[in-house]
Each structure stands twice: as C-alpha cells, then as structure tokens.
C-alpha cells in the first residue's frame, strides 16, 4: 500500500461480514489499481455466492434487534458515524483519490456530502410518522404505521464510491433495515473504510455488511435470496434492467439510480459567462464521470459562436493530472474501457463532421487521461448524442427555437437530469415543466443535496434518494383496522 494515512486502520483489504474482517473462502484476491499511475494499490477478496449468503444470514439475524431499537438510539449511532467520517475526512479523501482518481478537492467534497446524508437520515429516523384515519364505523380506529422493509441489498458504482454508500445505507439503517453491500471492484476501499468507522461508531455486528468479488454471483444471490426484501442499485441502465428482472422472481422492491444523458440548454437571453461556469461544474466534475453530467450542450444560434469561444477559453485553464496533486482539476478516467469508449465517441463525431476546438484525443499525462474536449458542429446522427459519454467531452449542438431545444432535449430514453439557462421568467417556467427529467437545473448546473429527491424517470431509474423521500424507500406502510369492544 503506497498511501500515507494518519489512521492506517482505515485501509482494509478484507470484506466485512457479521462484524468480522474476512478473506474469500477460496483465499483468492484480485488487484485494485490506482488509475492515475496504473500501480497496484492493494488487493480485494474475490468472494461469491457462499459468502454473500452468509452475509445475508448475518443481516437477517441482526435485523431482529436493530429494527426494535428506539429510532433515537439508531439515530445516535448514525450521528457518531457521521462525526467519525468528518474527523477522518482527509484519510478517506486520500483513499478515494488513490482508487478512483478524482482530484483531492472533489474527494474531500464527496466525503463531506456523504456525512451530510448520514446526518440527514439520522434525523429522519425520528420522523417515520404514521397516521390515524377517521373511522367509517362506530367502535373502530383506523391507523397506519411505518415499519422497516427488512434486509436490504445494495450495489454501488465506482464514480462516487463513498457517497453512493452513504446515500443508500443511511436511510436504510435509519429506517431499521440491515444492509449487505457490494461496492464496485474498481473502488472497494472507500466502502470498507466507511465500515471501519461504522463499527467504531457502535453499529452492531451484522447490521452493515460489505461483500467484494464476483459481481454476477453476488448479484444473483442478492436478487434470488428470499430474505432480501429490497435491492437498491446505482449503476448503468443495462445492468439495472438485468437486476430488476431477477428481483421479480421473489417480488423484491427495487430502487434504481441508473444512467443519464443530460441536456444543457443555453438560450440567447442567458448570461453566457455564468452558463460557462456551470458547464465546467457540471461537465468536467469527476472528469465527466457522473450520471448527471451535461452530456449534450445545446446553444441557441445567435449566441453559439460566442459561447463556444468562451467555453473553449475556460476549458484551456483546466489542470489535468493525478488527483493527488493539489492543483489538479481533472483526473484520469477509471480504466482502459472508459478511455476507449470516450475516444470512440469523439472519433465517430469527428468522422461525421464535428470539429474539436480543444482536445479531442487521449492526454499524455498518463494511460488513463483524456484531454478536456469541446466539439462543435455536433448533430443527432452522431453516437455521442445518444450515449452517456462519461468523459471530459463537451459536444455543442445548435438550435434555433425554444420548441426545437425542448424536442432535442427530450429525444432520449434517459430522464435523469437536465439543465437550461435563461433570464426570461416565463421561459424558465415553461421549459422546467416541458423537460422530461426527474431533476431540472434552471440557471444551475449542480443538483445534488442530501435535502432533495435525487432520481430519474424513463430508463434513468425508479425511486428517489435523499430528502424526505429517501427513507420512504426503506419503509413499509402497515394499515391497522382496530375494532373497539362496545
Ligand atoms: N443515477 C445515479 O444516481 C447514478 C450514480 C452513479 C452512477 N450511475 C451510473 O452508473 C454507471 C457507471 O457506473 P458503473 O460503470 O460502475 O456501472 P455498472 O452498471 O457497470 O456497475 C455498477 C455496479 O454494478 C455491479 N454489477 C455489474 N454487473 C452486475 C451484475 N450482473 N450483477 C450484479 N452487480 C453487477 C458492478 O460491479 C458495480 O458494483 C453510469 O451509467 C452512471 O450513469 C448512476
Ligand atoms: O453520478 C452520480 C452522482 O449521483 C452525482 S451527484 O454527486 O449526486 O451529483
């Protein structure tokens, strides 16, 4: 391990099941690499169905007492977890940048955001209210109560390796559920470090379990095991569909946070400098590897050239390099597959007539670096219009009228995030309503907050994470019809 941590106990190369740190039954491990250098960062247990089954059994046993605990006592443990995460923020950020590649500033911000979700749901734990319903008959009381769904399985992606854990686990735990998580194989260490701190916070054994290894086998056990009552997945739409189908056999509830293809519309009445700043915040965060990145930038014809020039000048200031360098603002992509996908989309666009004002090729900062890119003359017949780029590429599309921009924006199976910039109040309301997305940024390029419902429609997902809605995803409504003796 090449990390210099204040608390070395945070860096774990074993899975966490029933409060124990374990190797795979087979003893097999697989390497985890630092995407900035290609160096091996450590090893990860290569577990499968048997270990997953045991983790689910541990979660089922722990559920009995965890769900009976007073919500304020569950809240106190979550609060301690939140505080420990903030106390260890720098170490957690170092681990995240080493395994995922994002700049340290972004890793610190993600750790802070993760703690905010835990803090938010520690409070929500105490507000899982039921209701009484006016009786229709004499000597009768009608009421509902909220109860935890039970054992929850969670599968998370590599692009936000801490926040996706916090955003799923904290509402589940707050609701009284127990959890078995499979993190992405590219980024297991952030999840395992959070488990170290959860154990330190007093989370009882078996309440939180982390299994690492063979995604297909682990996923098959999670989706088939009848003890699992809910699957919460964040990842690509194609995998989400597979998991949904498998969950149907045992009628599991699902939350799906899937892919995106966000339009970013710049109208002729927008403040262009302001819009450029928000493109940078939306498009180039995490090297463009976020589900809510501006994926299609649509600019009204009369301001197209001016906007393209301003954006290119701003992109020229981006500092590409290893995330461990404090002045880096753009890190590497996660792996070779990502580089090939991004470069393939750019080459396809260029071959069909698009032009690169800046970038347009991999960068010599290292094997997994792609140059921040602005493409003009991009059209719907190019693959980049229909695919989630997941890289630092800003394709510019030209439109004439408002209606055309909305039709172009909605011409996708995805429906996660959308953005637009205009200073016309009537247009702001019209466009906010017309865009077919779960989340809309009106004169804003950023959306995420622990206080708001994060999620998509169409093939971007089911359910919401965060806000007052996040905990409802892990609660069942029980209706009680109470007859009173005459
Ligand atoms: N909507 C959101 O909140 C959100 C957030 C982050 C990422 N994403 C999406 O995730 C994708 C990028 O992340 P990714 O490359 O890790 O996605 P991915 O779907 O390839 O993998 C996500 C997780 O699923 C696991 N997985 C893959 N195949 C599986 C299977 N058959 N059974 C069980 N688990 C399986 C992976 O190991 C990983 O842990 C993008 O599409 C992005 O838009 C969405
Ligand atoms: O990639 C998806 C994340 O949910 C993005 S955000 O940090 O929530 O905006």
TrEMBL record:
PROSITE patterns: ALDEHYDE_DEHYDR_CYS (PS00070), ALDEHYDE_DEHYDR_GLU (PS00687). Its EC number is 1.2.1.-. Keywords: Oxidoreductase. Pfam families: Aldedh. It is an enzyme of class 1 (oxidoreductase). The active site is at 257. The keyword Nucleotidyltransferase does not apply. InterPro entries: Ald_DH/histidinol_DH, Ald_DH_C, Ald_DH_CS_CYS, Ald_DH_CS_GLU, Ald_DH_N, Aldehyde_DH_dom, Aldehyde_DH_Superfamily, Succ_semiAld_DH. GO terms for molecular function: oxidoreductase activity. Residues 21-480 form the Aldehyde dehydrogenase domain. PANTHER family: SUCCINATE-SEMIALDEHYDE DEHYDROGENASE, MITOCHONDRIAL. Belongs to the aldehyde dehydrogenase family. This is NAD-dependent succinate-semialdehyde dehydrogenase. It comes from Kiloniella antarctica. The lineage of its organism: Bacteria, Pseudomonadati, Pseudomonadota, Alphaproteobacteria, Rhodospirillales.
């Amino acid at each position: 391990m090449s990390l210099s941590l204040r608390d070395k106990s945070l860096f774990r190369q074993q899975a966490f099941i029933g409060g124990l740190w374990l190797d795979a039954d087979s003893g097999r491990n697989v390497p985890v690499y630092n995407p900035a250098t290609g160096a091996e960062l450590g090893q990860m247990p290569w577990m499968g169905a048997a270990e997953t089954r045991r983790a689910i059994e541990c979660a089922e046993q722990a559920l009995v007492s965890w769900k009976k605990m007073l919500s304020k006592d569950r809240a106190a443990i979550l609060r301690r977890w939140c505080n420990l995460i903030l106390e260890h923020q720098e170490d957690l950020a170092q681990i995240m940048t080493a395994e995922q590649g994002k700049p340290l500033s972004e890793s610190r911000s993600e750790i802070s955001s993760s703690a905010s979700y835990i803090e938010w749901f520690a409070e929500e734990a105490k507000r899982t209210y039921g209701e009484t319903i006016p009786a229709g008959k004499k000597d009768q009381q009608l009421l509902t109560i909220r109860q935890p769904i039970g054992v929850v399985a969670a599968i998370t992606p590599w692009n936000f390796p801490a926040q996706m854990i916090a955003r799923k686990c904290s509402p589940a735990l707050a609701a009284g559920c127990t959890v078995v998580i499979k993190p992405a194989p590219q980024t297991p260490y952030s999840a395992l470090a959070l488990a170290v701190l959860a154990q330190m916070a007093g989370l009882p054994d078996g309440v939180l379990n982390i299994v690492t290894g063979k995604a297909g086998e682990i996923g098959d056990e999670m989706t088939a095991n009848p003890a699992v009552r809910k699957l919460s997945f964040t990842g690509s739409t194609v995998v989400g569909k597979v998991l949904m189908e498998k969950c149907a056999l045992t009628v599991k509830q699902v939350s799906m946070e899937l892919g995106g293809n966000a339009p970013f519309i710049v109208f002729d009445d927008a403040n262009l400098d302001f819009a450029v700043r928000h493109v940078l915040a939306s498009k180039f965060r995490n090297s463009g590897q976020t589900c809510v990145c501006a994926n299609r930038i649509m600019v009204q014809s009369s301001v197209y050239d001016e906007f393209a020039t301003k954006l290119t000048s701003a992109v020229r200031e981006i500092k590409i390099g290893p995330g461990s360098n404090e002045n880096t603002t753009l890190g590497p992509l996660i792996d070779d597959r990502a580089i090939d996908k991004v470069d393939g989309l750019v080459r396809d666009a260029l071959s069909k007539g698009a032009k690169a004002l800046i970038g347009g090729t991999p960068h010599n900062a290292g094997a997994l670096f792609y140059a921040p890119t602005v493409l003009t003359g991009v059209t719907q017949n190019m693959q980049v219009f229909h695919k989630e780029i997941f890289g630092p590429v800003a394709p510019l599309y030209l439109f004439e009228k408002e209606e055309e921009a909305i039709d172009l924006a909605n011409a996708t199976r995805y429906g996660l995030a959308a953005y637009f910039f205009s200073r016309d109040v009537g247009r702001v309301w019209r466009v906010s309503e017309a865009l077919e997305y779960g989340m809309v940024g009106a004169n804003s390029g950023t959306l995420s907050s622990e206080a708001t419902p994060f999620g998509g429609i169409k093939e971007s997902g089911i359910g919401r994470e965060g806000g007052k809605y996040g905990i409802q995803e892990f609660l069942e409504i029980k209706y009680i019809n109470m007859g009173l003796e005459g």
